[in-house]
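Following the same procedure, the fold was encoded as tokens, giving this record:
***
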Amino acid sequence: MNYFFYTDYYLELDLFDNQFVSILSGLHVHPTLPLDITIMSDDCVLYETAQDSIIDFSPDTLGYYWNDGKTCLRTTEGLIFKSCDSEEAIQSVLIDGKMCGQKIDCTLSKEPQDQPRYTLRLLYGKKALLKQGEGARYILEIDEKEHSLYFHEFLFSYSVKQKTGFYSDDGQLFYYDRPLPGLVIDTFMVLHFNYAKDKHSVVCGDKLISEADVDSFEVISTTLAKDKNHVYNLAEIIEGALPDSFEIIDGKDCDAFEYYCKDDSTIYYLGEVIYGVDCASFRLINSNFAVDDNWVYRSGKRISILDSSSFQYISDLYVADRNGVYLNDIFLEQIATSKDDFIAYDHYFLSNEVIYWQNCSYPLSADPASFISINSMWARDKIHIFYQNKIVYKGTYNYIKPFYDLLIVDEKMISDKGPIRGASSVDWHRLYGNFYASKDNLYYKDQFIDGGTPRSFTMLDSLRFKDQNNIYLIEEYSEELEIISDIDSDELVIVNEFILKTNNLVYFYNTVIKDANPKTFRFLKYGFSSDDKAAFCNEIRLDGLDPCTLHILNYNIIHDTKRLYYQCTPLEIEISQMVRLTDDILKDHQFVYYKGLRIAKADAPSYTVVNSFFQKDIKNIYHNEKHLLLNADETIFQDEVYAMDLKRVFFIDKEILSADVASFKILGLSISKDKNNVYFRENIIVQADPFSFKILGYNQFIDKFNLYQVENGKVCICR
């Protein structure tokens, strides 16, 4: 029996090709209509006349747009059908209260005969009812008036029946495949996706919350709950949180729903304390940024280099304050000062009459007056076309249009390397994926394929294709193209996602599996295969294995009655004495192996696995194949990742060289300390005071002198 719960559900969706698509996952979503919704597009406006109304969700700047085949201009006053002075049409960014931007061409090719003036009405945050219209159309009802639906983004709010990981089988309760001992089915109930309880106990997943008060326990969100005594982040108590006043800060209007919480004295980000925040002045910018009167916070961490009183979130790429503009990345690199001219063009920007791609390390030899960003990768000026910061085309042109990852420039096709040899935009067309054709020429991206024939080109599966002369294989991650030539594609058989065979040959990807018999060849599992005479790992023959007595243990290990391989490496393991300790560690009465490597000096009879990181025998301590300088008789293991004897402490396989064993204490989150130092993993945290040092939250720490956070794998003093 599976358990479900009902909850209010919030989901940001696009309507794309008349199907709802989750912005977060890209997957199709099928909500039940009609729905009460909140309009959340940053630039949602309604253009109204006496005859009709048009809801427009797509533009986010002032400028020219098409509407029912007519050219119209959005100005600060509304939408009009007429030519205007170029100062009225500007792709704009607001910095320090000043509108900065690039002028655009305002010459209409043809003015409409009638020139109705439209009014502009902001709909952001407006409540509406979404209904099914005729055919594939949708209808928005706003203030009891119906409007046809065009392209948009919404935050949908509705109730949904959600399947949980809790289920019961033959009288036993489980969370996924993990049993829940001690809970009684008769009084068991699911509170939320992660939380459930019976008459006596509360669990989060398969973890018992021993401190929970069952009667007063209530769920706040997917990861937060409280009772009369405590507030919980999943199964852990949030130390110091006040349950009576603890609540979620409503952040739906700034795309921060359930990110921030508060009580009477503290603000929390995803259940972790935001240190030193001024609660009275605290306000949300979006899911990443918040400010108070003193500081700017990103993901709950104080950013001291930004001024909170003048902070502006420009886009996912840029933020600004009174001192300048910064790249919105982990380093917050300043790319312009308050005295600099700054204009944002998607991933490009202008600073002091120089155009850059992404940051100041990538300047372009571009003319600022004629520069236009095409998209995040492409841009142009009057005589250049740029891919990122490279010039890929130089010369005059009349027409440019993006074509998937390429550009159409007049009659040429341009890639990130320049004009494509032999390609004409007049008959250029896409076949499948990154395969294109022009006349009788076949291309992969911008690569001309000698001997390729578009007329016979077909798709075998998402990564393999063929024509009358060749087989084409795409490496899934690098997208590199491999070609198998001189093959009769009509006799081709697809064995699985990696293996092909013909009447005479078997291929692993584009490599012939030497001596494999196509007639008896069969794929087994985990990359292993066999024919009537041999076994194979990918394209490698595994000598000495009997294909009739094969046994596959996991992704790495295959054996018959006499011999064993770890992937393609034979091991000196006696099969009758074999013990598999983990998927990577094997032993018999004489030897121990880790991932095919014999562990030198290991005592096989006494060799055991301690936890996920450590192993031991009667003499030594090991991390996988590495022997650690610890005394086996004296060693204790703590918090999974620490091992220590009377002289040394190891964090996994690295010794904490300065550690004082007698005073050594583990704090958690890979933080430890002794009487002299505080350590992150195996390294000393410089300037940290061990007596006052404590963990504030995930990746954030404090002592009496400083606030610390993890940056690039190291604990640093917050700027």
